[in-house]
Amino acid sequence: MNAMVDVIEAEIHQRIRNPFYVRLGSQIKMRREYLHLRLVDVSDKTGLSAPTISLIERGEQNCDVDQLLKIAAALDTHIARLLPRGPGNRPDVDATFFAASRADELAAVYLDLSQPKRNVVIDVAMALSGA
Description:
mainly alpha
């Protein structure tokens, strides 16, 4: 039953494919394939349905921070390594990711920063995470 609900929700979300989520999904899929894992393997480790993971990998469903943390753990990596890369090879985090993660206050603060200050925030977060 949960798989059917996931598929229906994914259908609703796939109407608009955000380039950030397309790139994020591609990073997730590359890591999964590198580890020779099947969708069902990642599903078993995350509790997310295989169709949901497939939709995330294709960028047809948004992925929030909670889901990304589960996926990163299942893929034996850190969330920062799955985020698409932007200038300076830094993770490219955009406002839609914050919004999907229900981190509106954090998004507002982050988006008010100049690009150099955003880079510092990302560098510090990566250093703290060991990424």
